[in-house]
Amino acid sequence: MKRSWLVLALLLTTWSLQAQKSKGYELKFKVKGVSDTTVYLANYIGEKLYYADTAQANKRGEFAFSGKKELPTGKYAVVTPGPKYFELFIQEQRFEMETDTSDFVKHMKVKNSPNNQFLYDYIHFIIERKIENEKLNQSLAQYASDPDKSAEITGRMVQINEEVMEYQRKAVKENPELIAAKSLRLSMPVKVPDPPVREDGKVDSLFQYRYYVNHFFDHADLSDPAMTRLPEFQRKLDEFFNKSIIQIPDTINKYGDWLLAEVKDTPELFKYVLQFITYNFETSQIMGMDAVFLHMAENYYQTGKAFWADSTMMAKIDERVERIKPTMIGNVAPPLTLADTSQETWVNLHETPQRYTILYFYDPDCGHCKKKTPTLVEKFKEHKSKGIQVFAVSGDSDEGWLKFIQEKGLNEEGIFNVAAPQEVYGNSKFATELIVQGKTDYKSLNYRTQYDVFTTPKIFLLDEDKKIVAKQVGIEQVFDIISDIERRRKKS
Q1: Which of 68-77, 196-205, 315-324 has the lowest mean pLDDT?
Q2: Could you read off the pLDDT of 349-358 as tens digits, one per residue?
Q3: Largest CB tally within 10 Å, which of 21, 323, 343, 362?
Q4: Residues 410-452 pLDDT 10s
């Protein structure tokens, strides 16, 4: 009886030691050409690499990364002096790799890592096919005048492409749990079927586009947080939101909401996707895309769904929402009543008469404004017969402002020159008196916030109802937009 207890105790001790050994990670490397130097392990977040660990290589190029806590699954890179680096996957937490700086891929040997064996087997296969394809391209040029030979060469090139696709399909199917296979699968296009023929014999011309968009993420594991550590997933998001779907805010918001609903039960992925969409369209150079940022801010951040957003982040988001919301395209322009050059007559933007208003914010001391304003005036004179006026708002109302108007031609008929009186700045009592007297209002005096004017020049195009038609456009572009609207008016 005592012996059986002893055996059980030994077994328990062995299991305990094995459990302790299995914790953490230990990645061993030997890289010929690396000696007595520091090397780095870097992890991908999206398409960017961040340092995750360091190690010291000995004279034989041997080094190891180790730690007590397992590394998150994803794509990584070992960075050596140069800098040179080779990529690898971490899912297994203990393995060995050996290579040579003269050619990391060619000399790569892998031990105890199915993921990295998968990766380098695939790379070697692709390189072989690429070399063959390059030779075939050379032969194709050589036999361009021989139809039979050209057809034979082209046939082999098609066959190579089919071999690559078959290799990908087979490799992914046989290794569904490997992160390396999931990474490869992300780069494989979804096969789009031919459109069905309707009873009238016609086909739906949009069928394939809708199928492509609706199945775009079929090859992404939207339940795996490791997607955030694959650059291929970042590229997938970029291709979808910036190239595949129609670039209008309503469409982007629709598909953004759909994708966020798909990943909502995977917090790390939900955070990643929401941050990507929000930042991507907040910084977009395409006019009107701030409406996507506004949608994400109001529906996810301000509702508490962005669980990681602390008070500092929320204060910034709330401030940004407050600044851009009044000037969304389609909104009526915020009130704007300012004094003309006499500083006695107050001009109300909403009471100016023309079909189109170019709302032009500038500062007389702004170098870019000095350069661009004469162009605005010349273009205005050329196009003003279309029913255009300019409402030019200066950031200063001193003598420099009056000089700027004269020098840059802003005294042209049809241009309203306005600014807040200089006494307003830093004098809240004076500003309050103006508001009480009914000459202006708080929003007008606070126009920099209402119109989000923190760099100049800044342009808005308003229609006859003073609705915002375009914003943050160049001088040439705003007149092109007017011409395009006019053409469409005549056609209709």
Answers
A1: 196-205
A2: 999 999 999 9
A3: 362
A4: 999 999 999 998 887 777 888 898 899 999 999 999 999 999 9
Q: Which amino acid is at 262?
A: E
- Taking the CA atoms of the chain, what radius of gyration do you get in angstroms? 32
* The two structure tokens encoding residue 339: 């004094």
d(CA 111, CA 114): 8
Residues 214, 259: Cα–Cα separation, whole Å: 10
Tokens 């079927």: give the residue.
Answer: 193
For residue 84, give the H/E element and its range.
strand 84-90
Pairing of strands 356-362, 388-394: parallel
Count other Cβ atoms within 10 Å, centred on residue 98: 16
Alpha carbon of 460 to those of 357, 447, 468: distances in Å? 8, 13, 7
Across the beta sheet with 37-45, the strand order is 48-57, 37-45, 74-80, 84-90
Q: Check residue 19 and give its pLDDT.
A: 44
For residue 146, the model assigns a pLDDT of 87
Quote the tokens at residue 154.
């082209």
Residue with tokens 């189109």: 356
| C-alpha span between 476 and 457 (Å, rounded) | 13
H-only helix segments in 245-366:
249-262, 267-282, 290-296, 311-324
User: Residues 33, 101: contact at Cβ < 8 Å?
Assistant: yes
Q: How far apart are CA 401 and CA 417, in angstroms?
A: 10
Query: What SS3 state is found at 392?
Result: strand
Check: CB of residue 447 under 8 Å from CB of residue 333: no
CA dihedral 242, 248, 251, 253 (to 10 degrees): 80
67: helix, strand or coil:
strand
H or E, element range at 429: helix 428-436
What is residue 387's DSSP assignment? T
Measure the CA–CA gap between 192 and 467, rounded to whole angstroms: 42
H or E stretch covering 212: helix 207-214
